Amino acid sequence: MEEAIMDYNQKQLQILDTAERLFAMHGFHGASVRDIAQEADVNIAMISYYFGSKERLIEAIFLKRVMDVKNGLDELVKNKDLAPLEKINKLIELFVAKISDRPYFCRIMVRAQATQEGVPTELIHEVKKQMYDLVKKLITEGQKKGAFLGDIDTMMMVNTLVGTSNHVIISQNFLKKVWNQEAISEDKFRQQLKERVSNHLKKLFKVVLTDER
Amino acid sequence: MEEAIMDYNQKQLQILDTAERLFAMHGFHGASVRDIAQEADVNIAMISYYFGSKERLIEAIFLKRVMDVKNGLDELVKNKDLAPLEKINKLIELFVAKISDRPYFCRIMVRAQATQEGVPTELIHEVKKQMYDLVKKLITEGQKKGAFLGDIDTMMMVNTLVGTSNHVIISQNFLKKVWNQEAISEDKFRQQLKERVSNHLKKLFKVVLTDER
Amino acid sequence: MEEAIMDYNQKQLQILDTAERLFAMHGFHGASVRDIAQEADVNIAMISYYFGSKERLIEAIFLKRVMDVKNGLDELVKNKDLAPLEKINKLIELFVAKISDRPYFCRIMVRAQATQEGVPTELIHEVKKQMYDLVKKLITEGQKKGAFLGDIDTMMMVNTLVGTSNHVIISQNFLKKVWNQEAISEDKFRQQLKERVSNHLKKLFKVVLTDER
Amino acid sequence: MEEAIMDYNQKQLQILDTAERLFAMHGFHGASVRDIAQEADVNIAMISYYFGSKERLIEAIFLKRVMDVKNGLDELVKNKDLAPLEKINKLIELFVAKISDRPYFCRIMVRAQATQEGVPTELIHEVKKQMYDLVKKLITEGQKKGAFLGDIDTMMMVNTLVGTSNHVIISQNFLKKVWNQEAISEDKFRQQLKERVSNHLKKLFKVVLTDER
DNA sequence: GATGAATGAGCTTTCATTCAT
DNA sequence: AATGAATGAAAGCTCATTCAT
Q: Please, are residues B201 and B96 in contact by the beta-carbon 8 Å criterion?
């Protein structure tokens, strides 16, 4: 995977961005290469020319984004001098920020997990495993240091972290409506949401992992 | 909605079940009416004949399942003589059971929220709103009775409930692999999972809502 | 193969005939299903609908025609009471008539032997083997009866029979031009040609197989 | 035609050879310029650049090979001091050798005669006419000298010569299989075949043209 | 002179739907 | 009421060729 140093040119990036958005909005089969090409303002033959096929296009999107996440997580691990809970908080912030800033890809990921739509399943499993291992490590460390309680269902905590974050992102439109915030700008709302989910999850992890509130 | 007293005949039910499964597995556009008709062992023209169109077919699936959930929630509300936390627990159990038993529809719902795939958005919003209102009511009641703490982000708690549950269901295959439980039967694993998510969420709500652990 | 009782309807026959002609004129890849559909005056989707694919269409053509030839040969074998040379003459007449009457299929066959264009090679080999075996049998019979000479290269005689006949058919246009017969009708010319090739080959076989002229 | 003094450079020759092979194997439309360029190890744009178009490429192949044949025939005519039958034998040898050594081009020729695949028909007709005129001349000479019989269908004899030779070449694979010679090398088999066809045709012409056996 | 990038046109096949019975 | 036959539209992809350098 590491050999795939992705240096895409301008047109390729246009295609990738447009495809990400359309795949997110309409699903893999719901977004046609014709539509993608048209919205990306490139010739339809370019997609096959650059990426080989529609399937390889979505794989390229996955590769591009997943590497981002993996690299982010790796970085977190290296940071040694934080307290256990601070590390957890950092992780939450980082994860929420990552998927908040890539809402389209978040939707694709959710779809991909829910189904099998010509999507590289192994890649997804790999990054999920890494996430789980990381959280497990952080929690075990905290427990060894006596900072965290003993009886924790780590995997379920990961599911809550990922599931809640994802769900908030994909329910954005609904939440905006429910809270009567349809007037404010997309970006501002997303920023508010990011903070709110972050805080919620931090609180959740704190009360579960420690004795404090 | 109320006029839609759904009395489907055998063939219609076959179509609905098969379509639910295939839509869940391959997405709305990924599942062709040909495939659905073939797997449901009915003539291909039957789908248009009975449901009008592919879109109306998936709407029928939604209507059928969503009514189920709504009715379940209504029932819960009526039950007056439970303690606040017991009501929350009951809700969690009920919700988790509902989507655990309908994993295909759960996947469709998740997809539908993540995107717009010719799916009745309003219906989804309606049932989500109802869910939110119900939780809000339960929490407020608990707070009035002094059983729950004051500073609760209700909407985020709903997101955690729904998001975690959904995520566990759609990640079933991954979890099975990670836990090396690939040998045991599908049903048994689902049962275990149901219990585990239930307990996890109950614990989560308890430590967040009350002072106890 | 025998289960394929080919009972084609009118439209299917139109498609088969047109496809045979266009495949003969432009080759497998040179004749598009669009063109075939248009010239056969059927909807383009009908070809996939009836035959599955372009490849299966040409296979159907082969199956249809090759069965004809095979059945013709089988019939000849049964005819017991002819003299050896008369049998050979009968075979020549029959073979020449067969491919003269199906000039399009003759061209397809020639192309198919010359190359590999998504054509059922085994079917061709099978019918060629049958042809060879039949000629071998006729010549051996004649030799046993003392009617034919001993030193005959049977396979090469078959090659001459088939090669000459094919070549005359596919060179029709050239021959017509060389002989300045461009004025006479297609059918009449073909009839003349059939007779001429037939006589030529009969004479050839006679002088090679026997002592007479 | 005579102005086309063909002095091709290395890359052009690579293209011509590869194209000849691929056209022979898959037909004109079945062989893409992409495939040709790739197998010839040249840039895809080179083909249009050097030859103008795909059609002009196959024309170049024809021109190159047909000139060969024509020149060979011309040479034969000049040779005065051979007996009539010896001249015929020489012609047979020369012709069979020519197409045996160029099996790919032989296949292209056969295809070209069978159909119209963007192939220079006039060129083919021209060389065929020359061949016919030559044989006619040789036979007439022989008849004048009293060496040959009078009643000869010259054109059909040409058809037998060309048709049989072609057919043997394009049926090579089948013959190899029928004779259980699949073990021996390609070259050796081709050599054997060349001799066998040659002898067969010589014998054929001898018994038809003369009284001897 | 030579080539990687790019393109419009065309390919085969499948789609959801409708028609005639 | 129910269905096999049929269809126009659109799908993903490859084609031979041209363009800009």
A: yes
pLDDT (mean) for C116-137: 83
Higher pLDDT, C127 or A39: A39
Four-point Cα dihedral C94, C111, D105, D70, nearest 10:
50
C-alpha separations of C56 from A168, C38, C49, C51 in Å: 51, 19, 11, 6
Give the pair of three-digit tokens for residue C124: 């061709």
Could you count the other beta carbons within 10 Å of the beta carbon of residue D92?
20
Buried b (16+ CB within 10 A) or exposed e, A4-14: eeeeeeeebeb
B window 183-202, beta carbon within 8 A of A: 196-197, 199-200
DSSP type of residue B210? S
- As a rounded value in angstroms, the CA-to-C1' distance for C112 and F4 is 36
Instruction: Record the tokens describing residue D143, joined without a space.
Output: 């008849």
Distance A34 CA to F10 C1' (A): 10
Lookup: tokens for D3: 């102005």
Q: Tell if the pTM clears 0.85, that is, is over it.
A: yes
Do A114 and B24 form a contact (C-beta atoms < 8 A)? yes
* Greatest C-alpha distance within chain D: 60
Residues with Cβ within 8 Å of residue C9, at least 6 apart in sequence: none
C203 vs C201: CA distance, rounded Å: 5
Per-residue CA distances from B94 to A65, B76, B131 (Å): 36, 9, 12
Q: What pLDDT score was predicted for residue C81?
A: 79
- Enter the tokens of residue A196: 């709110």
Domains of chain A, start order: 7-52 (1.10.10.60), 62-209 (1.10.357.10)
Q: Do A89 and A79 form a contact (C-beta atoms < 8 A)?
A: no
Residue pLDDT, tens place only, A20-62 = 999 999 999 999 999 999 999 999 999 999 999 999 999 999 9
Contact D40, D23 (CB under 8 A): no
The pLDDT value given to residue B3: 39
Question: Is residue D46 within 8 Å of D18, Cβ to Cβ?
Answer: no
Confidence at residue B5, expressed as pLDDT on a 0 to 100 scale: 52
- Across the interface, whether the CB atoms of A175 and B153 are under 8 A apart is answered no
Cα–Cα distance measured from residue B98 to residue A84, given in angstroms and rounded to the nearest whole number: 36
Question: For chain D, how are helix, strand and coil distributed in percent, rounded to 5?
Answer: 75, 0, 25
A103 CA to chain B: closest CA distance, Å? 10
Residue A2: strand, helix, or coil: coil
**For A149, which DSSP code?**
-
Report the half-sphere exposure of C151 (CA within 13 A, side-chain side): 6
In this structure, how many other beta carbons lie within 10 angstroms of the beta carbon of residue D170? 25
Residue B74 identity (one-letter amino acid): D
| Helix or strand run (H / E) with residue D36 | helix D33-40
Positions of strand F less than 7 angstroms from a protein CB: 2-19
H or E segment and range at residue A173:
helix A172-178
Distance in angstroms (rounded) separating the CA atoms of residues A99 and A107: 9
Q: Which chains touch B (3 or more CB pairs under 8 A)?
A: A
Q: If phi over 0 gives left and psi between -120 and 50 gives alpha, with beta otherwise, what is residue D198?
A: alpha
Q: Which residues touch strand F (CB under 7 A)?
A: A 29, 31-35, 44-45, 47-49, 52-55; B 11, 42-46, 49; C 9, 11, 42-46, 49-50; D 29, 31-35, 44-45, 47-49, 53-55
